[in-house]
Amino acid sequence: MKCKRLKWMMVLLLAVLVLGAISGCSGQSKNQTGNGGQDGSVQDSGEQAKGRFLEDEVDTGVAFDNILDIKKLEDGTIRIVGHAGNFGVWDSKDQGGTWEKAYDLPAEVQDQGNTYLAQAAISGEGQTVCVVKEITDDSPDSALYLVNKDGRADRIPFELPNDSDVQSEDGSLYGMSNGISDVQFPNKDQIVLQDDAGLVYQVGVADGDVKHTYDFTAITNDCRVFAVGNTLVVQNFSNVLLYDMETGEQKSSEEALDKSGAENRFFSAVDTLDAGESIYCLSSGGLYHYKFGGSVMEQLIDGNMNSLGMPSCYPLALVMIDEQNLLVVSNDPESKSIAATEVWKYTYSADASARPDKELKVYSLYENQEIRQFIGHFQKEHADVYVNYQMALSDDNAITVSDALKTLTTEIMAGNGPDVLLLDYMPVETYIEKGVLKDLSPLLKESGGTYFEHIINAYQDDQGQICAAPARFLIPLIYADSSDYTPGDDFNAFTERKSTMVHMLPWNVVEKFWYTCGAAWQKEDGTLDEAKITEFLSRLNSAYGEYDKSLGDKNNEYYMERTTHLLDQSSMDAREYDFAYGRVNTNFGLCRRMDYDMQQVLEQKFEDGKRGLMPGQADHVFVPAMVLGISSKSSQAEAAEEFVKSLFSQGAQEVSNAGGLPVDGFPVEKNAFHSFIDGHEYNEIAGSTTTVGDFVVMLGPTPKEAIAEMTELAESLTTPALTDGVIMDVVVEQGEKVLKGELSPEEGTAAIMQKVNIYLAE
Fold first, then answer.
1. Which long-range contacts (C-beta less than 8 Å, at least 24 apart) are formed by 174-182?
2. Per-residue pLDDT at 376
3. Smaller CB count within 10 Å for the chain: N or C?
């Protein structure tokens, strides 16, 4: 009896400790924020490691709208060839501190009439090779010019093979126009050219003779080529190929280089300090150093701690000044410079901590490019915090959503979980009930933003606490001809039409309607309404009609494989062009910023087109995206709060507006929302035209009436979609079988209920 009583007392004590540790939204009012030695700093392990490269933006004093190349010359001068009013050459004698123009490029290579300077590369001796393209009736012709140190140009007698001369290894001909796509200048005697077909040529500067030709036509769309010293480095998705430029022969592969290349994605720029015995490589992971024949690819700069890791930043060129100083030219559409061209300097500081003492863990199921972008901005403003972004699922692992969520729950309960959670596809309501999320209300008030009230309060609990908040939202919209859709159609009226889903894939139809219907299925006890699901499958099945088996053929033009359930698979853009050319009768799905742009285009083409909220079993549905929450057990509560608060500010909400990034939805902050729907890149060239397919569209700022219409539409949204990724996968899996005729709606419902009930009981 004593043992049994003691056992139950221990169980009760453990339960009290667990409940007390996870108090948050819908839990106790006090949140645990103690560090307990888990604040990310090194505890009782001696002195913090020192030494790190620090980033500074270089003010060149020149209004560059394009930089074609940058190189360190033999005498230590840093040289840029670029465009600022016209094409010229600029030099820096103090490692990029100040710049002076050396000369303008000669008239032969300046843009004039039907010719333009396409590429240029600098040699260590200060010469510049220029690729000048002439626009002809058939296709652009490429001509090579060598500009010497004094600015005089001489044409290099090299002619790129014509279309009919470009052959693959099996002898087949390429039916495409050919041109020079890249040029490099590894030494004073030779240049390396890459053409559009995937052939690479070593060309003599003096005579234009081809010393070696390399055929990469088999991987032309998936490879990068760098000439370093006497080595040609060719990187594709799976490995890195090496060639001896003296003999033209391929070298043995090097395991460490292959492994690092696969892990850190494509190199964007490469340089050397020892004539090619080793290389310095830039990628989104940062700066790496590798000595040929070695066993380790050394990371010198962690891209997560600076601009190199920001998705909008693409490094164009790298100059290693010495082992402790380097310059990077990058293209960043979000930069404030002309044409988005920036120069950054990285300097090694022996006194800076190798890694900031505080580590903030940010977690998501899938990689989110916008979060990565914001992390880059946050790191710059918070040098004392290292943001460790972790995502559970990727193409490289076979982990399921369910398994990832189980692991996450275990880590949170053990006190080792993330500080900030990106809750997309997660059971947000369950986390709220368990009290593992902090109240965000005070942070949102401090951020200074003006938000769409129903959307920002999507996850408000019974006590008025905002336990999680969407930074973005998507609008389920439909666009169709009046014969197939009438604005205001409910789910019943829409599914009674028999022509609305022609040539659409079953899984894609189910997934899109899941958002506007699933929101009506959840009962107060958290279980699903079986009758609603049966109605959902029955009506979709009736409207869909008989399944066309050819749609499942990968050679079919309508085939679209469901590889992962990112929001963009349910977006409108999956069928925008099919609708524009009459291959489908309706276009519906989740509207994001780019989808909205395309809708404006379609409205100019179709006078009788109708647009409205996508029908469903629930009304006025929106899809929360980039849903942020803070763990009530965060050991870095202050940094986590600052991170989330900053993300909801108007400035951060506008991030990616012009960055060309995949944007998960519209900003929840109203002013940022207005800038998005009026944020077309062509706003300042009103009256110009663009061609979409074979029809011409007038471009211009979004009319005020359209902005008001979209704002009113956003204001009307009141029902958050159910976004639990596990339930969604089950519904799409079984719903597809119903639409294919493999299951009846009742059988599909039974299978959904069985699998979902098991999941909810876990």
1. 174/217, 177/138, 177/139, 177/140, 178/139, 179/133, 179/139, 179/140, 179/141, 179/142, 180/118, 180/119, 180/131, 180/133, 180/142, 180/144, 182/119, 182/225
2. 87
3. N
- Residue 435 · residue 22 · CB < 8 Å: yes
CA dist., res. 492 & res. 486, Å (int): 12
Structure tokens at 632: 């009530």
Please give the single-letter amino acid code of residue 608.
Answer: D
Backbone angles phi, psi at 499, to 5 degrees: -120, 10
Pairing of strands 621-630, 719-720: parallel
- 3-state SS of 483-518 is CCCCCCCCHHHHHHCCCCCCCCCHHHHHHHHHHHHH
| SS3 at position 205 | coil
The residues that bridge with 470 in the sheet, in sequence order, are 627
Using an 8 Å Cβ cutoff, are 308 and 284 in contact? yes
Tokens of 33: 């924020």
The 10s digit of each residue's pLDDT in 397-441 is 778 888 999 999 899 888 889 999 999 999 999 899 889 999 999
State the residue for tokens 């499958």: 537
How far is 580 from 694, CA to CA, in rounded Å?
10
Interacting residues of 222 by C-beta distance below 8 A, sequence separation 6+: 236, 237
The C-alpha atoms of residue 498 and residue 520 are separated, in whole angstroms, by 24
Q: Is the dihedral of CA 25, 26, 31, 35 positive or negative?
A: negative
Q: Of 548, 541, 506, whose CA–CA distance to 744 is shortest?
A: 541
Residues 6 or more apart from 490 whose CB is under 8 A from it?
615
Distance CA 535, CA 513 (A): 12
As a whole number of angstroms, the distance between CA 195 and CA 212 comes to 14
| Helices 725-739/401-413 angle, 10° precision | 170
Closest CA to 330 of 722, 659, 702: 659
- Distance, in Å, from the CA atom of 643 to the CA atom of 469, rounded to the nearest integer, reads 13
Segments in the chain below pLDDT 50 = 1-23, 28-46, 164-175, 657-662, 681-688, 692
Give the span between the Cα atoms of 98 and 81, in whole angstroms.
15
134-149 in b/e form (b: 16+ CB < 10 A) is eeeeeebbbbbbbbee
CA distances in angstroms from 409 to 417, 422, 431, 598, 742, listed in the order given: 8, 14, 9, 40, 36
| pLDDT of the residue at 15 | 39
Q: Is 133 left (phi over 0), alpha (psi -120 to 50) or beta?
A: beta
Which run of H or of E encompasses 183?
strand 180-184
Sheet holding 190-195, edge to edge: 180-184, 190-195, 199-204, 210-215
Quick one: which of 662, 672, 667 has its CA closest to 622?
667
Burial of 293 (0-12, 13-18, 19+ CB in 10 A): exposed
CA quadruple 245, 247, 248, 252: dihedral sign: negative
Cα–Cα dist 118/50, whole Å: 44
User: What backbone torsions phi and psi does residue 46 show, to the nearest 5 degrees?
Assistant: 90, -165
What percent of the residues of the chain are helix, what percent strand, and what percent coil, each to the nearest 5?
A: 30, 30, 40
Give the integer Cα–Cα distance in Å for 489 and 471: 29
- pLDDT of 2 reads 34
pLDDT of residue 475: 93
Q: Cβ of 699: how many Cβ atoms within 10 Å?
A: 17
**Helix ranges restricted to H, 209-353:** 255-263
Q: Exposed e or buried b for every residue in 572-598, given b needs 16+ CB within 10 A?
A: bbbbbebbbeeebbbbbbbbbbbbbbb
User: Tokens in use for 403?
Assistant: 């398994």
220: tokens are 């032309």
CA 29 to mean position of chain CA atoms: 38
